[in-house]
DNA sequence: AGCGCAGGTTACAACGTTGAACCGCGGGCC
DNA sequence: GGCCCGCGGTTCAACGTTGTAACCTGCGCT
């Protein structure tokens, strides 16, 4: 209950009713525009609402209706640009649908992702959008049934859980194909995950292999660079090691933009020209890649659609909850290869 | 009320009580660990809690206590790296204090910032952290009294509102002084706001002027470039115009990192070497500036402290609400000039 | 033996809201 | 003229929790 500095507690339906001279339930009826209200009383009540500055108490409404209008969004961390932009979209779209978003950070750690699923602090949300990095099938299974849930990422679990994912393989294939179409033949792959046969890294790796196969090229294991955590620092370091080892290559496909931007720095630091000496493609279309020099060619994974679909699906789950006759769904929106300067789109250097 | 797919509704205190063979209030007493509970019943109750899988209903608790444990955070947009990193810190610190964060985006528009202050959707938060761009004194005044509020940004309003801000002027002065100490004499200022005498832009401008004055240099209006919206694109465009106009200069102080990174691109695009030809300093210490080439010298405004102080202050406001005897506070944590390659810190180009 | 007292547990009320059931009243229909 | 019905509104109960106060039991004290 909000208490004003003067010590008055926030006005309730009863206070409005008193001013309007009707029962408090009539005020409720007006506000929920039930039909059975005479225009005259409606006006009278609305005036009273205005006068006392009434605001509905959402906690009470929430208790009564079993709905809060709040959804949870659990991401690894907002300081990763991709997730920040995703959260931006999710919040924006949720607002359009009169939902509000409670953001939780998991650090990508399995333990904390599990906690996000179970956390009682989240029990005042109607449902959860979860972008997990560490979870596995088994983790999701026991909790899946609990509350409305939509997972952002590749399907971990064939159970009753909606997934909104990306066309990882097709997009990685297109990105690699783009490099090959430029005549590049030795394409470094940054970000492979050792001993992972499902998951984002594996899918993108499969796309890379497929594109090479399409071009009749073998996979050179010497060009496949494993990096567990996809951040800029590690991208720069890995690229640096590759260069210092004297590996021959003419292109880089980084599994995300952060790796790509780190790699870009390492390339430039060593005096290599991008795209002349090495062409570079990333993945995610993070804003940072648009104003680097050269700007970064990347895959736009359909972030806007992902956010829209995820919120919509979650809402459907929430609305469906009493019935529960909605099957699990998996959607992967269209992606788009955004060609910029790092693969030779109009390098606009002027006086250089 | 959470309904499981099987149609069972979530267990309540009553369900636990029935299993444990005590009254539901005793269960409540156990869970809130009131002293007056025999160890034997405590154990019995906890076992029952476990057995039925009880989770407290936060909506009910919230209604009863008038507290939700949720705080609101309203920022312009998360896709701006500075705010994403700020949100990251706020969520992290809030979690430490058992608070959870509801994030709202205002787009930096006055209208929507006002709405964030008043929005009933936020009435289930205990208080609000607001990072406004468009608000003015008059806007804040009437609403300030409503609910616990901490404003992130320079003090707009001398009323009963806490502010956590930055040492804009001192930091800008230090940044500019740093450039002057390198021997630069013609320092372009990117991001001035026309006709603004208070506000972030004005304060940073004042710091810039002060540093010049310290060095006995005049302010050259031809070097002061107004940019209303501080994003990369506009930074790049403005820098481009300055360069194309043939303005003589040997350094740039951008009012934030986004402007700086945009400017960096324009400089490089035109074949100018940073820092050799032009030294460059930004403001905010956004992650992106760490792995550009050259990396970006910038002001770290004490983001971590800002987040910590803001959350703590808000909590104090919330706790103080019944009494209301807390005066308004203004805090500006220490900043730090982070010297990187764009002003000549160990340019590590190797083969170049 | 009776009384008070404290420890342990319980009943009751309340937080503010909404859905269901109910009531009085006037008008239309038979 | 009596009955039914719909309109406009009301009363009642409930959502699940916690603070207050009352309750009961057994024990120690006088």
TrEMBL record, chains A, B:
It holds the Pfam family LacI. The keyword Nucleotidyltransferase does not apply. GO terms for molecular function: DNA-binding transcription factor activity; transcription cis-regulatory region binding. Residues 11-65 form the HTH lacI-type domain. InterPro entries: HTH_LacI, LacI/GalR-like_sensor, Lambda_DNA-bd_dom_sf, Peripla_BP_I. PANTHER family: HTH-TYPE TRANSCRIPTIONAL REGULATOR GALS (PTHR30146:SF109), LACI-RELATED TRANSCRIPTIONAL REPRESSOR (PTHR30146). This is LacI family transcriptional regulator. It comes from Cellulomonas triticagri.
């Amino acid at each position: 209950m909000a208490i004003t500095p003067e010590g008055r507690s926030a006005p309730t339906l009863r206070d409005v009713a008193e001013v309007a001279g009707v029962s408090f339930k009539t005020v409720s009826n007006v506000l929920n525009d039930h039909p059975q209200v005479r225009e005259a009383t409606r006006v009278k009540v609305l005036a009273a609402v205005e006068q006392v500055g009434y605001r509905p108490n959402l906690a009470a409404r929430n208790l009564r209706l079993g709905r809060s209008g709040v959804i949870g969004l659990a991401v690894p961390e907002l300081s990763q640009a991709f997730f920040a932009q995703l959260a931006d979209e999710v919040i924006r779209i949720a607002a359009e649908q009169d939902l509000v978003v409670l953001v939780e950070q998991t650090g990508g750690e399995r333990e904390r992702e599990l906690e996000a699923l179970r956390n009682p602090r989240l029990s005042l949300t109607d449902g959860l959008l979860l972008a997990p990095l560490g979870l596995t099938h088994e983790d999701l299974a026991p909790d899946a049934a609990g509350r409305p849930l939509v997972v952002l990422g590749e399907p971990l679990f064939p159970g009753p859980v909606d997934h909104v994912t990306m066309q990882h393989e097709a997009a990685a294939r297109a990105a690699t194909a783009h490099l090959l179409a430029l005549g590049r033949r030795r394409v470094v792959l940054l970000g492979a995950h050792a001993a992972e046969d499902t998951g984002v890294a594996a899918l993108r790796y499969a796309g890379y292999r497929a594109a090479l196969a399409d071009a009749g090229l073998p996979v050179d294991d010497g060009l496949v660079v494993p990096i567990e955590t996809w951040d800029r620092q590690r991208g720069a370091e890995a690229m640096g090691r590759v260069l210092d080892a004297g590996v021959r290559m003419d292109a880089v496909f980084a599994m995300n933009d952060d790796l790509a931007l780190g790699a870009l720095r390492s390339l430039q630091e060593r005096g290599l020209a991008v795209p002349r000496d090495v062409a570079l493609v990333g993945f995610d279309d993070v804003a940072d890649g648009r104003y680097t020099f050269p700007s970064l060619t990347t895959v736009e994974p359909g972030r806007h659609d992902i956010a829209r679909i995820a919120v919509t699906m979650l809402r459907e789950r929430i609305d469906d909850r009493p019935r529960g006759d909605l099957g699990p769904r998996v959607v992967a929106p269209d992606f788009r290869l955004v060609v910029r300067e790092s693969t030779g789109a109009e390098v606009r250097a002027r006086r250089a």
